[in-house]
Specification:
This protein is α+β, with helices and mostly antiparallel strands. It contains 2 helices and 3 strands. A 3-stranded antiparallel beta sheet has the order 1-2-3, with helices on one face. Mean pLDDT is about 90; it is low at about 70-75.
């Protein structure tokens, strides 16, 4: 059975240690749900982007962890 994992990187592609302990997931959907719940903490912890891997095969990425416009996001919360 495949293991789905995330690779955490700086904007230049350098791998970094994530702020949230990473897991191995049984499905792509589980991995995507986890990143949806944890992306903000990961970004605040120093990761700029992620890549999704199925075993050793890159499925997609890099995907930015930064909101498209952080100023817009903050004004929506106010």
């Amino acid at each position: 059975m495949a293991a789905w994992t995330w690779r955490f990187e700086k904007a230049d592609g350098t791998q970094v240690e994530p702020a949230v302990p990473p897991e191995e997931f049984p499905t792509q959907g589980d991995a995507e749900s986890w990143i949806g719940e944890n992306w903000k903490a990961l970004a605040e912890g120093g990761a700029d982007q992620v890549r999704l891997l199925e075993d050793t095969t890159e499925i997609y990425g890099p995907m930015s962890l930064h909101a498209e416009s952080e100023a817009d996001a903050e004004s929506e919360e106010a």
